[in-house]
Amino acid sequence: DGHFSEKLQVPEALTFDDVLLRPKESRVEPDEADVSTRVSKNVELNAPVLSAAMDTVTESDLAIALAREGGLGVLHQNMDAEEMAAEIERVKRADELVIRREDVVTARPEQTISDVDAMMAHEGVSGAPVVDDDDEVLGIISNTDIRPYLGVNEDDLVEEAMTDEVITAGPDVEAREALDLMYDHKVERIPIVEDGKLDGLVTMQSILERREHDDAARDENGELVVGVAVGPFDVERAETADEAGADVVFIDCAHAHNLNVIDSAREIRETIDADVVVGNVGTKEAAEEVVDFADGIKVGIGPGSICTTRVVTGAGMPQITAVAEVADVAAEYDVPVIADGGIRYSGDAAKAIAAGADAVMLGSYFAGTDEAPGRVITVDGKKYKQYRGMGSVGAMQSGGGERYLKEEQEDEEFVPEGVEAATPYKGSVASELHQLVGGIQSGMGYVGAETIPAYKERAEFVRVSQAGQTEGHPHDVMITDEAPNYSPQN
Ligand code: XMP
């Protein structure tokens, strides 16, 4: 009775190149556009950008670099749980105000000056608390104290040269307070003392370094935020991630509308303290299944640059429509939405947010940076870095099969949903992010929106024809110089 031919009365689904933002009246200067946002119910960012949980994209180096610029790195899951916990801790400790006791370089009163001088040079520090056997702080010794002795009385002991009036603070000291103490007493380091014992060290250098990154995304303790991907059924790993200090746990699944995945995600949400983002989904029906418990919803079925899901399985949703459908549902519950995959240019990120996303996730965009794992290779004089889909044969062999709901198989061959590739080498995360965020801010300027929530409300789209699409790229010219935010082969 026409059942099958009715199936062909299909709705249209659109993606990045099908639409453009309609320019609107504006008083917003791009530099003033505020790009702070939420990635999940309880985690805020100062840049609406996440790096993909892929083994050629996000490990602690990239997560640290991105969080310092206001975004969020999501660690991949192709490592064992112990390694994952260590990676989370690395990010958490990267910018910490108080250097922990075990990391503080200390001197002993009976050491000679020449000995302590060599030790400090070797450890790369310019001063050290002097402690006794009970870890009580007796003084502090710095290069300034040592200098008059060098070449003259090098065999004298530390206790003679050290400053023995030490300014100390308790473990709860705050950055502002520590800095005031340093200025008042003209010192550069303050030992943290608890119960009479050395417990850590605050240095002027660490405070100033933190100030350099005043847009960093930090938790309530001032530590960098970090996300981590876990397999949809790996409750234990989610708990380990939570205990290690992850701010957001991402249920990492290519098809989160699988009801077994949703049951498990719900269990993880009930078990851990960290926020739980569920994904990936691409329809309003899927969003409706998860919106009552998820702290964030991640959207993307097949838009990724290394992704072959749509050609291998025949399933997928063009990304702009997918984001808008999910955002319709999420908005009612005030749950943030993340658009994951397919973003090649900053304009794509601007479109994804206009379609209802609170933040965007990128893989290929960051895979070529210095901070991404993997080395630079040179082909015909051009530099590249490896970039592979987590559903590629290589990545699944390294343990990533669960994302695609596939058991690890020994004899049978995997049916991959991604490819292994290379991406042009790009330089630092900070410079890439500067271009990306700058492009989003300019988009906000064209639409006349000062904040991300206002932009999501105000932005309107027009549909673009193939001719309009061609017109939008450089045409009828030969590009002679590389632009930092455009490359034609993308
Ligand atoms: P971009 O376009 O930023 O996409 O490179 C990154 C996103 O792609 C997803 N991803 C995959 N999708 N097969 C897929 O279908 C894969 O092998 C694969 N690996 C990653 C993932 O959502 C990532 O964030």
TrEMBL record:
List the keywords (alphabetical).
CBS domain, GMP biosynthesis, Metal-binding, NAD, Oxidoreductase, Potassium, Purine biosynthesis, Repeat
What activity regulation does UniProt give? Mycophenolic acid (MPA) is a non-competitive inhibitor that prevents formation of the closed enzyme conformation by binding to the same site as the amobile flap. In contrast, mizoribine monophosphate (MZP) is a competitive inhibitor that induces the closed conformation. MPA is a potent inhibitor of mammalian IMPDHs but a poor inhibitor of the bacterial enzymes. MZP is a more potent inhibitor of bacterial IMPDH.
Q: In which pathway does it act?
A: Purine metabolism; XMP biosynthesis via de novo pathway; XMP from IMP: step 1/1
Cross-referenced InterPro entries: Aldolase_TIM (IPR013785), CBS_dom (IPR000644), CBS_dom_sf (IPR046342), IMP_DH (IPR005990), IMP_DH/GMP_Rdtase_CS (IPR015875), IMP_DH_GMPRt (IPR001093)
* CBS domain ranges (all copies): 99-157, 162-220
Q: Where does NAD(+) bind?
A: 252-254, 300-302
Give the Enzyme Commission number. 1.1.1.205
One GO biological process term: GTP biosynthetic process
**Known partners and oligomeric status:** Homotetramer.
Function, in words:
Catalyzes the conversion of inosine 5'-phosphate (IMP) to xanthosine 5'-phosphate (XMP), the first committed and rate-limiting step in the de novo synthesis of guanine nucleotides, and therefore plays an important role in the regulation of cell growth.
Protein name according to UniProt: Inosine-5'-monophosphate dehydrogenase
